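Cast an eye over my tokenised protein here and flag anything odd:

===
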Amino acid sequence: MRASAGRRQAAGPAAQPGNDVAQRQTHSKLYRSYPRGDQGTAMSDDRSSAAILRTPEARFAGIEDYPWPPSYLEVEPGVRMAYIDAGPPDARETLLLLHGEPMWGYLYRKMIGPFVAAGYRVIVPDLIGFGRSDKFVDPARYSYAAHVGWVTELVRKLDLKHMTIFGQDWGGLIGGRVLAENIERFARAVMSNTALPGRGQAIPGLTAQVPLSAAELLERFGLDWRETVEADDTINPEKIQAMIARGPSIYFLAWRVYSQTVAELTPSKIIPGWCVRPVSAAARAAYDAPFPDERYKAGSRRFPMLVPITADDVAREHGEAAWEVLRKSRLPFLTLWGDRCPFTYMDKGARYRSEIPGASLPGVEHQVFPAGHFSQEDAGEDMAHAMIAFIGRFP
């Protein structure tokens, strides 16, 4: 059965924005700098590591192209995850669509409609820290394992079965592990512009989850993160492509430093830079809606630090365990890639196709779309129809 939508809680005291000096400190100090005030809903004292914020529902009132009402479910005591549950509740096919950073379920607005029209049930969670879901103030409350656990709890509490998972960005890092650790619940998998880090190549000389300064980025890797942005910190796609065109570069490190350095981590300054099609003003405002101020962005700031790019990151072992399951599985596996994703442009999902048997089954038609990193934004309708055809070929 579907979980019913939770009631809006009355607004309680929360923090006011801090001063400009505080906003320019490192992210861990930033989230400790706000006094209590009158915006949003604070679930506990902001000085506690358990402090949770809930974005006021009024922030979402002006969004006109995401009509599906939210439902809510506790994924740990006192921690509420929001999700969309669209389509017939008794449909044979269920789709689980997982977003990444700095997004929320709104990213899938172009895909939900075609899936519902095809008769599918569609589950679109907002990851903890994003969208309408609860947001911890303390960045340390977010971990790769915690995100996997929260999504797994949603899947198990809703008792979702015969699923097709779609993961992009962190939706693939999290979704790949949820898939492998609950393989019996899934019928198919689709990945886009993502990865599942396991053992193997790592970036040398870095320590897991330790920030890299702009000076270190320039000295050790020859990358200046400011080369990819405008004066107001808006990410510029042409500048990113110019950096990449000089030769293989680790643009992710430039993004990682950006995410820990800018005073305001604003989705509307990030998302258009990772798309090839214009992002409307209404869409940019919708992407900003979950984050009234910087206090709400601890999860978004934290995500780049959690990608296991170093050899000493224990998350790589969990990723490798997931790969072992997927290498033995015959689950039909599809890749739908964007040709201008600045993070995965050299690979375009090749590892999935070469190592997972289900990616080589007759009838699996991998595709590359004219799209940036946020393939759902650039090619959502086309990818939805490709997935519908894929599901039809593997009933």
About this structure: Confidence is low (pLDDT under 50) at residues 1-39. The first strand starts at residue 14 and ends at 15. The chain has two domains: 32-200+312-393, 214-306. Residues 4 and 316 are 36 Å apart (CA to CA).
